[in-house]
Specification:
globular; disordered N terminus
Length: 260
Amino acid sequence: MINLLPMPDKNKASSRAPRRPAGGKAKVMTGPYPALVQAAALAPFLLLYEIAVFFAARSGAANPLDALLHHGLARLGLVPFYLPGLLILLILLLLHLFRGDPWKVSPADVWKLWGESLLWLVPLVVMYLLFTMNWQELSSRLSLGDVHVGRLYSTVVYHIGVGLFEEFLFRLILLSALLVIAQRLFSLPLGAAQIVAICLSAAIFSAAHHFVGAAPYTPVIFLFRTAAGIYLGTIFVLRGFATAVLVHAGFNVFLAVLGV
């Protein structure tokens, strides 16, 4: 029997289908480690920071972004102590619930994440030295004979907090939001959306240092912070939030040891 009914035009049917970004959708927090593993890897550093801030017995928080979170939570009527750090862990746990990953944390995965973060730290340190410092100056700064242990401890804790809260704001929140906007509003393919989100968040990250904390502006430092933001954004996309936090915090500790 001959079918006289017109056959549907595949080209027309496909043209009526809604456009979707090519290459898949990006996850809010990327990387190979489940959110629960990342929370476990960050928990000791958050605990160290919050305990240090508590015993410092001073008004305000240890860095501007932490202070901003304290202020916002206080305006909501919430008790500010501990909540900024717990907020990061809570978001990671909510992401874990949303993805439906198993409630299992392997110590080996946590150690692997910590070790990997040390490896990712090395190129960032090299980048900083190439941008800003000569080797003779580095050699003099690495002379730690006159470093006061208590002052160094408080500086290290401060810089751990900066790494935690800056990555929370500029990568987990800002970069993720830019990634969603690039894909859903502008229908960019996944790869292009990631490049746009990484570069825009890096530029905002660099510029923010001259507004929050009023760091002095120099073209070299601005370019370095932008390059560092691109590097940290790439780590966030490829390896996850916790790895980016630990690399950022480790780099800040390196600067604290140098006395920068």
